[in-house]
Amino acid sequence: MPRPVHDDADFVIVGTGAGGATAARVLSEAGHSVLMLEEGPDLRGKPRARRLADAMQESIRDFATVATHGGAPMPLLQGRCVGGSTAVNSGIIWRLPDKVRAEWTRDHGLDLLLDELALDTHFSRIERELGIADTPAENRGGNGRLMERASKALGLPGRAIRRNAPNCKGSARCLQGCPNEARMSMDVSYVPRALGSGGRLHALWRAERVVFASGRAIGVTGEELDPHTRKPVRRFEVRARRGVIIAAGAVHTPLLLRASGLTHRVGDGFMAHPGAAVVGRFDEPVGMGYGATQSYQVPLPDLDMKLESLSLPPELLAMRLPGVGESWQRLLHNLDYYAQWCVVVRMRARGRVRRGWLGGPRIAYRPEPADMQRLKQGLALLIRMMFAAGAREVYPGVARLPEVITDPDDAAWVLEPSVRRSDIHLMASHHFGTAAAGHDPRHSVVGPALECHAAPGLYVMDASALPTNIGVNPQHTIMALVSRASELLSNQERPRAAA
Amino acid sequence: MTSLPEPPRKSVAPVAAAAAQDDSERTGAQQTGRGPLTTLERRWMVSILSAFAPSRSRGLAPREGEVDYLGTAQQMLRASTPIAAFGLRAALWMVALAPMWLWGRFRTVLDLDTPGRTRLLAQLVAHRSFAVRELTMLLKLGAALALLGTPSVRERSGYDNVQPTEKIESGVRRKLPLAVSETGDPVGIDRNRGVA
């Protein structure tokens, strides 16, 4: 392998998702030199693949095959490209719930970070800059409109989803990467802003270790990857004059910290929002391929769950339909007549992340019985909603139950105690808590300013730092917390820079 | 310390580039299950994936040779984690040899005709064992990715038909009672106030 390359900056930031890009934007606009390292490719300005397998290979980590251990495996959806998971999510925006903010202040000592007035300022600024608004009626698509119909029929508190996609054309391709760059994901918003303020970006640079001197973080080493084979082509060593910021996500941030010698509570406390979905077949065309990928929701915070419309690309919709051979092919013949909605649960379960024996992450995580009960309740309600919207038949996707349900009362089958965790296909797209923030070093990894208790100059600025499960999509919370923490960091470092 | 130039930005050419990687990944990848398929495994893979949606069938039926099942399966193998790639390979062997362990016949999947393979898959996908069911579903995912990833098949599926959403009004269409289970309302819905 050729000799390693060297680079340096005031701040080296690992990851360009919601946390990394926000830190880069704030710090570079404050006049610091910033270097962003991203393991995935830079797909900005490039045509995005329409074929799902190609899109997944380009921008989803390991083809979405990273999965939990413990009972039935649960795949985790994570982006791996410039923009991170914000480049492949549905752009759903929620502020940190007040109840959770109060809990973090009271129980975790995060008063400084969560100062109400200051944090609200950050939330508002992000909302303004990313054009956050309710999904307009013309972009709801048939899938969302049917859910709205069901919500009204059953008297549920449904409403349009708030998204960061002010220029959405309703292509229903959020998960493959927006073909119009209409969603204000980090690759089209804060990464370019950081670059415009003098920040720099190395895509296909995979960080492996943080380097320390006298206990202080001073740099990062890793490997540059070939754009085609993703194999290492040379090593790199980058030096951080003022700080190293890790924002590689709740699965890979702890792996990087542990590989760098930090172990106390690192990787513990993994939390997620697992979800499952039901599909309904309608007599009228639905057109899942049009409208925002996720446009309508029924939030049920007191029940720790949220119901959402979720349009699938045709490959995944096909896989989700029951049967094999002719019975399957008959269902595939009119793919525009289906709707799919999901339930996402704020699970109480906590797991842990470690490096597995083949090098990838090993995520031990098992939903608790109460979590599964809530999920089953959500599935049962979704089935009833499908019929309320006019579905002719519903496919619950629960093993050992009938593949097709034609009577709303049969939704109760899902609630049977005999339906086990392994009978339901779960997927988790929001992950938190593996380097939790708190004032007490015995129970947390980073302090109230998101600096590691055990390593000055090393910061964790992503969902890993969230101390508890927030129950809503985390992107906005991550961005606001990181924006606030980066501002504090910038102010702290400014006198030193001037000196 | 020197300032570095931007790394080259080349797009990941989908299938063609992926296929070209085959030879370059023979060494390390083979140890973790991500190595290229053997000739026998390739034959198994095509015969199994194509049996999920046979050509001469009603509904959405691909034409002979229209779908690149093998290319998609190899793409999955290369892009997956080592454990998932191992799982895909294990699924392949499990299904290929299923006539022996499921039916007690000394045959592989290659010895069955297409309807026989489809019958076999239908049994496996509904098997009582979680592992058998899920490994078969992994192959069904491969079949779906290949089938609907083929533009001509996707076009025939109707998925991209003209936007029909104007026809769907969001207003109430059908009112249903809310009771769900013997234990009562599963999500605490108050009939008059909605969700509490």
Question: CA-to-CA gap between the ends of chain A?
Answer: 40 Å
Share of β-strand residues of chain A: 15-25%
Shape descriptor of chain B reads globular
- Largest interface, C-beta within 8 A: A-B, 105 and 95 residues
Give the class of chain A from helix and strand content and strand pairing: alpha+beta
Tell me the Rg of chain B in angstroms: 23 Å
Structural class of chain B: mainly alpha
Number of helical elements of chain B: 9
Q: pLDDT under 50 segments of chain A (min length 5)?
A: 495-499
Helix content of chain B: 40-55%
- Count of discrete alpha- or pi-helical segments spanning 4 or more residues of chain A: 11
Q: Could you report the average pLDDT of chain B, rounded to the nearest whole number?
A: 76
> Major beta sheet of chain B, specifics?
2 strands, antiparallel
Total strand segments of chain A: 19
Major beta sheet summary of chain A: 10 strands, mixed
In sequence order, what are the helices and strands of chain A, one letter per element? EHEHEHHEHEEHEEEEHEEEHHEEEHEEEH
Beta-sheet strand percentage of chain B?
A: under 5%
Q: How do the helices and strands follow one another from N- to C-terminus of chain B? A: HHHHHHHHHEE
Oligomeric form: heterodimer
Mean pLDDT of chain A: 95
